[in-house]
Design a protein that fits this description.
The protein is of the alpha+beta class and 234 residues long. It has two domains: 32 residues; 196 residues, outer membrane lipoprotein receptor (LolB), chain A (Clam). It has five helices and twelve strands. The N and C termini lie far apart (78 Å).
Length: 234
């Protein structure tokens, strides 16, 4: 029995170290999640069909995956560049962002770069027209009417004011589109590499002024710029 005591003590010490390591890993896991990170799925339906989008962000970094008629488009906004990639051909364009866009990153480093339709509508003069419920959740409905048409934004009735639905009626064409946000999640453990393009992709680098000049007459890159404020800063 005496000879076994060192072995028992060693096993106990090893178990204690292992348990301590597991507890340390468990304690570190919540720290890996960034409180400024977000995810949401957005589905838009209208006369032109259905568009499905997945949005992730970490601070001002953005990754957006868009599928239109079975063809994917990847948008990445990270630091100096706004990148658009065709994942099927692994080609695309890296556009240097404007000084105004980079200044907005510095002044609002933790602001979510997507899903801000409620704030945008209020900034453009929208008014709260009613309180309602959407899928059992209390919401407030903002309405903005201008020369383009009528837009209603349904936002959660809490301090987050997350958009859940956007209805838009175009005055000139009579077309109506409905966008629904689903699966809002926050505080996700997203690595910085998630917001970088695939290193195998062939990307053309375009300076901001060149992009503005070229895009006035011809498309630049595999898809349009979908988040213009993140490129232009306006």
């Amino acid at each position: 029995m005496i000879a076994r005591r060192p072995l028992v003590a060693a096993l106990a010490a090893a178990a204690s170290l292992l348990l301590g390591a597991e507890k340390k890993d468990e304690a570190a896991a919540p720290e890996a999640a960034d409180p400024s990170s977000w995810y949401a799925q957005r589905i838009t339906q209208g006369d032109s069909g259905v568009t499905v989008e997945h949005h992730w962000s970490k601070g001002r970094k953005l990754r957006a995956e868009l599928v239109v008629q079975g063809r994917p488009v990847l948008t990445l906004v990270n630091g100096e560049f706004y990148t658009i990639v065709d994942p099927m051909s692994l080609t695309g364009v890296k556009i240097r962002r404007s000084p105004e866009a980079l200044a907005a990153d510095r002044s609002r480093p933790n602001e979510r770069p997507f899903g801000r339709e409620g704030e945008d509508a209020q900034r453009n003069g929208a008014e709260i027209v009613r309180s309602d419920k959407l899928a059992g959740q209390p919401v407030r409905v903002l309405r903005q009417t201008d020369e383009r048409g009528k837009r209603e934004v349904w936002v959660t009735d809490d301090k987050r004011k997350l958009p859940l639905r956007v209805d838009f009626f175009a005055r000139d064409s009579g077309a109506q589109t409905v966008t629904n946000y689903i699966d809002w999640l926050s505080a996700l453990p997203l690595p910085d590499s998630f917001f970088e393009p695939d290193p195998r992709a062939t990307l053309e680098t375009v300076e901001y002024a060149d992009y503005v000049a070229r895009s006035a007459s011809t498309p630049v890159g595999p898809a349009p710029v979908l988040f213009s404020n993140l490129l232009h800063g306006k």
